[in-house]
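Researcher: Let's do a round of design. I'm pasting the structure tokens now; please hold your answer until I've finished.
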């Protein structure tokens, strides 16, 4: 008998559109002979809708669905599909969240699944929360002595006295510097400041996306990523890939809209550095209590060849240009293999 998998995608975050593309890719990798799928999309306004088909994800028509999906918080794994006066009850065996960013990757949806006693793919509420929040990820990295960019934390309410904030930052950091919202993904809200005016503009932009802001030193170097898969003692880190950005840094536009940005699997690196990246990725993954999958991002610092941790993503993208599936496939683990294994992992943890 086939198990029923609820694939959840979309969401209210700034990464909504990327999530829809990732979900379509993941859905195609779920074997039909073992699993029945129910596709549940969350609109930008927060409505949960049943998508009628995979094609509706690809053409966007799922947003016009008139069937609302309501997951019961009770422990019977019931999903109510509501269309007008008609209510259909479906029993869900496992949830597969393909949500990027806030209200999805940050542990909030995972908390709903925990409340409903529903098995689900990927990291739990705690690891989702701390890895989504760059400030707290930095605290974890410091605790295990992983090198990372030095930073100045700023709260959005402090920007009411912008002069004082700028003065404090300039005392601690030199231009150029990066300004990042603490909770955001796909490089949304990130900017690079070369002078005071750009710093002020960057702080205001970051404050649109989060109340916590990080102002980081600039690390000049190559952007390197590593895929991690598994749990506890059964955790595996792939080889590494390199991002070659078509812009000054790998922002949202360079990542998704600029065809000149490139991803290189198994790039040439100084001897021993690939293993150093893998070891650091596993250390971060375990320290953050991750489960299932994550992508860990680094820099290889120019001039020193120092491995510098950047961030970790617990629901990595699965678009045609996403590094995680590329790295897994290069390591001999195509999506048709590891996607169903992620679903079975959810049962083992449960």
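Researcher: That's everything. Go ahead.
Model: Designed sequence:
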């Amino acid at each position: 008998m086939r198990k029923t998998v609820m694939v959840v995608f979309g969401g209210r975050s700034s990464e909504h559109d990327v999530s829809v593309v990732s979900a379509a890719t993941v859905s195609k990798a779920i074997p039909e002979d073992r699993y029945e799928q129910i596709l549940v999309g969350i609109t930008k306004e927060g409505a949960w809708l049943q998508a009628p088909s995979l094609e509706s994800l690809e053409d966007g028509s799922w947003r016009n669905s008139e069937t609302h999906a309501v997951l019961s918080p009770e422990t019977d794994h019931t999903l109510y599909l509501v269309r007008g006066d008609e209510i259909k009850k479906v029993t869900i065996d496992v949830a597969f969240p393909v949500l990027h960013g806030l209200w999805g990757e940050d542990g909030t949806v995972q908390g709903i699944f925990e409340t409903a006693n529903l098995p689900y793919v990927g990291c739990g509420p705690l690891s989702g929360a701390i890895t989504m929040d760059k400030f707290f990820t930095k605290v974890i990295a410091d605790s295990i002595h992983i090198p990372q960019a030095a930073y100045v934390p700023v709260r959005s309410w402090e920007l009411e006295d912008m002069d004082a904030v700028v003065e404090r930052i300039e005392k601690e950091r030199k231009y150029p510097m990066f300004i990042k919202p603490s909770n955001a993904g796909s490089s949304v809200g990130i900017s690079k400041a070369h002078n005071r005016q750009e710093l002020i503009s960057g702080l205001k932009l970051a404050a649109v996306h989060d109340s916590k802001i990080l102002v980081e030193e600039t690390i000049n170097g190559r952007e390197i990523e590593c895929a991690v898969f598994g749990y506890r003692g059964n955790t595996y880190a792939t080889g590494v890939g390199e991002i070659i950005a078509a812009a000054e840094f790998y922002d949202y536009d360079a990542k998704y809209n600029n065809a000149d940005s490139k991803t290189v699997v198994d790039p040439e690196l100084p001897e021993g550095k690939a293993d150093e990246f893998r070891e650091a990725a596993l250390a971060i993954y375990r320290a953050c209590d991750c489960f299932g999958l994550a992508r860990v991002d680094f820099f290889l610092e120019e001039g020193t060849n120092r491995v510098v941790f950047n961030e970790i993503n617990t629901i990595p993208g699965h678009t045609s240009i996403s590094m995680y599936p590329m790295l897994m496939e290069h390591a001999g683990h195509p999506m048709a293999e590891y996607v169903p294994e992620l679903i079975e992992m959810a049962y083992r943890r449960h």
